[in-house]
Amino acid sequence: MKKLSIGITFLIFFSFSNGQPKNEKAIRAVLSNQEISWNSGNIENFMKGYWKNDSLMFIGKSGVTYGWRKTLDNYKKHYPDTITMGKLNFKLLEFKSLSPVYYFVVGKWHLQRSIGDLEGHFTLLFKKINGEWFIVADHSS
Q1: What is the pLDDT of residues 70-103, one digit of tens each?
Q2: What DSSP state is assigned to residue 49?
Q3: CB of 136 within 8 A of CB of 59?
Q4: Pairing of strands 57-60, 132-140
Q5: Which ranges of the chain would DSSP assign to H, the alpha helix?
Q6: 53-77 pLDDT, tens per residue?
Q7: CA 136 distance to own-chain centroid
């Protein structure tokens, strides 16, 4: 009976932990690709982590922006060259699975720049769309 109880406990633990790391790993890869793209000065490639849709929501110091194109335009406006872009580093603090298709991520961002460093925090809502994870809402401060 004790072996059966241990076996059931192991199966329950394995079934709950098996799906999460796969999704978390995929989301970490999206964010890693964003860091690499940003640090290469490639904002367009950085934007591949975002849902390419008019309903994408970005919340920053200027308020709410809707839409992938508008978000891209804002990034280009505020970071017109590699000097202002600096080198981006994410510190990922928390991952929460909200459902099979939604993840909530909390982290810190840091830009190391010759013109002065910038840093802040972010919360991201990821959605799995057609088997891929995309940021559908970003609140960065």
Answers
A1: 999 999 999 999 999 999 999 999 999 999 999 9
A2: G
A3: no
A4: parallel
A5: 2-39, 43-46, 68-78, 82-85
A6: 999 999 999 999 999 999 999 999 9
A7: 9
